[in-house]
Hints:
- By secondary structure, this protein is α+β, with helices and mostly antiparallel strands.
- The chain contains 24 helices and seven strands.
- The chain has four domains: about 10-150, no CATH class; about 160-235, no CATH class; about 265-360, Helix Hairpins (Orthogonal Bundle), CATH 1.10.287.110; about 365-480, Tetratricopeptide repeat domain (Serine Threonine Protein Phosphatase 5, Tetratricopeptide repeat, Alpha Horseshoe), CATH 1.25.40.
- The strands form two sheets. The chain has a five-stranded antiparallel sheet with strand order 1-5-2-3-4, covered by helices on one side. A two-stranded antiparallel ribbon has the order 6-7.
- The radius of gyration is 26 Å and the shape is flat.
Amino acid sequence: MAMEIPQRGNLRDHSFPKALVYLNRTRATGTLSVNTPLFTKSIYLIKGDAIFASSSYEDDRLGEMLLKAGKITVEQYDKSVEMLKTTGKRQGAILVELGYLTPKELFWGVKYQVREIIYSLFQLEEGAYEFEEGDVPTQEVITLKLSMGNLIYEGVKRIDNWTRIRKEMPDTGTVLKLSGDPMNLFQDIELSPQDRKILSLIDGKRTIKEVMDNSWLSSFEALKTLYVLWSIGILAEKRVKDEEEETISISIEEILKPLSEEEEAFRGKVNDVYERLGTLSKSELLGIDETAASGTIKKNYYRLAKEFHPDRCYNSSDASMKDKLTTIFDAITQAYSTLKDDTQREEYSRSPDRVEQKEEDRRPEPAEDQFNRGVEEFKKGNLWGAIDLFKWSTKINPKKALYWSYMSLALSKVPNRLKEAEEALLEAVKLEPFNSEHHVNLGLIYLKAGLKKRAKAQFEKALKFDPGNIKAQKGLEQIK
């Protein structure tokens, strides 16, 4: 776990990168605001992920950002500002309306603006910050789909203050090692070739000074690279007690090797493990037998931690993937914590909870059972039977968006039931507001009901979350 950071304070006492790491590791939801005499900038987080940012600083406005990025000209900027004053529309919408930007370019521009606002905060050495827990605004927001590791990595790279880096880094006589926490080790971060080469010098024996001396870089560039890797948690300070621990039996090449699995196959694997979590013993979860050696346990844990790291959700179109991966990751970590220790392992093997489950105890939860039966009835064409079973699944577990989505689908195929289909899908949207498929399906319901404006709004919202959504694109074409 990252070092605890108070909910309010000053960046001179708690650096911005550390604050972000802490909020990410604690999976915080809320708003992190930074105040200076010149501006207030806010970052909105959901379950530890930065999804949006805002700023009161004039130079951070969308038009100014697009101008600086070379996406629009001064003349186009001035024309959009002129229309902004008379129409009250958003500048982005005006730029698209005037033909200066395509919707795709606007989508890129808003994401670029959000990232730049966040990156600018890494430059601050002083400023009052406050984190306020609670819901964050999600309507009309184009959300980032970027790992916190990549966000911090890019932000820290922009720091060029030698004094600050020396102050925030451990003493140059300190030995650095690879982090022993797979959450840090297998983050989704695109390291540069230079950073990878510096990482190869980390052996748990060299001091920071020795790494700098053995590198081909200047002292400043070498220390900055170490600072970047240390800030994102890939490197950690080696302490005396670490000498007694078994070293990580995994190479840097293995850590950095990308997993090239097709999304559909990966999603199927995640869903399979997720659905069976309640029936798997700790040893089954780690893929080991009861007598496995500690080295085997550790090796399997690291392999699974990489495979099911929560950061892998950013390449998936499934909005529920982050929650599923987080649940699996926590389960395998808990299993490893129990089985790696001989005493805990012995206690676990003798505990009443360890008794093998009978076949009847392995049945799905009641809600899931009702839902699965509903799917079967739906496939057979028995719509009313399916609707009845989906209704039961939502009554038993009203927090499962998938159940509401299927109920809506079945209702939409029954004459005069579109209103109920809409209500069911709105429940799914409430539970998973960033799932583009829910918005597409809601748009299709509105289209079927002849409510073209509402349908258009839902298709556009779906494209904000997933610009490549073909169903949403086709829906908009139908409206035209």
